[in-house]
Design goal:
The protein contains 18 helices and no strands. It is mainly alpha-helical. The longest helix is centred in the N-terminal third of the chain and has 67 residues.
Length: about 500
């Protein structure tokens, strides 16, 4: 391949990455605004205590969903995609039936498991009030089944290349959650938390079925041994990701529970508020990786040079896009937390500012972390994820005990920094992965700027100097990113391509 062809191929790769980053980032960005509006209203109506109950309820549901749901929204995509690309409609329809049958069965098992284990969880977390909350949590067990069915439908949409519907769904979920939760919290108070969670999950499932049923009638055979065997083969490909989801969900739940034990009834709510602030933006920009990047990377797993080039494209684009945005969030945090929450949540500001550095490190870690999965090294992936989650829980709890919520932020930042060093070391020595010169250059330029923003945020408390220095650093970071993008010569054609996708 000539030098000109290589340059064109690299440009096409950047365009592909930025296009899907724009599609999912735009949809997720609007969703973020709606979610923050809902969170603000919730914090005003229910306070920190209400946020703690919401956080623990959602973490409990998510933990059971991850433990039994096999992460179908991720693990079944490759099989669905293969069938859609290479087989006729009959085979695709059969594959859809397998996915739905597995989703139905795992949802049923998750619901029953939650019914069995919830009494012990309620007693541990709520203590003397466990009888009241036990009934509420038990009534939420069907949500696990609703989420499992929804994950199956998401896998179908992704596998059949209806990514525009997935983007629309992300918008719809935020609108539904806002429309349901706010009236219930307003008129019912704390008692409205549980029906709001149930109704939101049910309507989200209905939206997905609205997108999929016109193409594939709903047929399931959850107790068919033949279909279950096919389903086992299907989810084997995502076994590592499934285990990682379980670990992450369990770690978040454990942190909330431990902070409630070591702190007070408001500690879990403050941690969740800060954690939402630091993960919303990266979550928006990582949305395309699970949906589009992982299947594409799997297709070139055996071609080391192409695979490494694809990983570096993701790292470079994520660094240039996320660094200035994350810095802006750090500077704006004293405004964002009171704006989207309430005055009671100001303790979460310092935590979120420190922890945002961990999200900066994750911009490089996340694209690289898929390498064990696409190389079928499930054990390596599980070990890496286990080490990270153990480290995260340990550092967050120790940080809280040592220095309160600021210590929590430092713990998150350190955990993500160590995770990058470990993940990249494994990728380099086991898979021959090397960061490109461009990726290293972008990181080395943005790193001192990010450290300076953190230092300013800790040294000056909302004075004119704070806003001046913070604003200048964000502008410098943004200018660097725009200049680097201009050198790639990929931006002019991106907007048109994104608009075409939503018109399909």
């Amino acid at each position: 391949m000539g030098r000109g062809e290589q340059k064109k191929e690299k440009k096409d790769g950047y365009q592909h990455t930025i296009k899907y980053l724009g599609i999912f980032g735009g949809a997720q960005g609007f969703s973020m605004l709606l979610n923050m509006l809902r969170t603000k209203i919730t914090s005003v109506l229910l306070g920190v205590a209400g946020q703690s109950i919401i956080a623990i309820s959602n973490r409990t549901i998510q933990m059971f969903s991850d433990c039994t749901g096999l992460s179908l929204a991720f693990s079944a995509v490759r099989r669905m995609s293969d069938a859609y690309e290479n087989c006729d409609d009959t085979v695709v329809g059969h594959c859809v039936k397998v996915v739905r049958s597995i989703a139905f069965l795992t949802g049923l098992l998750g619901m029953l498991l939650m019914l069995a284990v919830t009494p012990f969880i309620s007693e541990w977390i709520f203590g003397g009030s466990s009888d009241y909350y036990l009934t509420k949590l038990l009534l939420l067990s069907p949500v696990v089944m609703l989420m499992a069915i929804s994950n199956g439908e998401i896998a179908i949409l992704r596998g059949t290349r209806r990514l525009n519907k997935v983007a629309i769904y992300s918008l719809a979920t935020s609108i539904i959650s806002l429309a349901i939760s706010v009236p219930l919290y307003l008129f019912v108070g704390l008692g409205g938390i549980f029906p709001a969670i149930f109704a939101t999950a049910f309507l989200q499932m209905c939206v997905l079925l609205y997108f999929t049923l016109p193409h594939y009638r709903y047929k399931v055979s959850p107790f068919s041994l033949n279909l279950l065997r096919e389903g086992v083969d299907m989810v084997k490909m995502g076994a590592g990701y499934i285990f990682a989801s379980i670990l992450t969900s369990s770690a978040m739940w454990l942190i909330c529970a431990l902070l409630s034990d070591f702190g007070n009834g408001e500690s879990a709510g403050l941690f969740s508020a800060g954690f939402v602030m630091i993960t919303l933006l990266p979550g928006i920009l990582f949305a395309a990786l699970d949906s589009e990047y992982y299947p594409r990377l799997s297709g070139v797993a055996a071609k080391t040079d192409i695979r490494n080039a694809m990983v570096n494209e993701q790292v470079e684009v994520q660094l240039l896009v996320q660094a200035p945005l994350l810095m802006a969030f750090v500077v704006a945090m004293p405004l964002l937390v009171p704006l989207f929450y309430d005055a009671e949540f100001v303790l979460a500001i310092a935590m979120a500012q420190f922890a945002m550095f961990g999200m900066f490190m994750r911009t490089m870690t996340y694209p690289i972390s898929f390498l064990p999965l696409v190389n079928n090294d499930t054990l390596v992936f599980v070990v890496l994820e286990s080490a990270y989650n153990i480290l995260l829980v340990t550092l967050v709890v120790l940080g809280f005990l040592y220095d309160g919520y600021m210590g929590v932020g430092v713990g998150i930042a350190v955990a993500h920094t160590v995770d990058f060093v470990v993940v990249y070391s494994v990728a380099r020595f086991k898979y021959g992965m090397r960061l490109s010169v461009e990726a290293v250059r972008y990181f080395m330029v943005q790193l001192p700027l990010f450290v300076a923003v953190i230092a300013v945020s800790m040294s000056y408390s909302c004075s004119w100097y704070y806003w001046l220095m913070g604003g200048v650093l964000v502008l410098v970071s943004s200018a660097v990113s725009l200049w680097m993008f201009s050198r790639m010569a990929v931006l002019p054609s991106i907007v048109g391509k994104i608009s075409k996708v939503f018109k399909r």
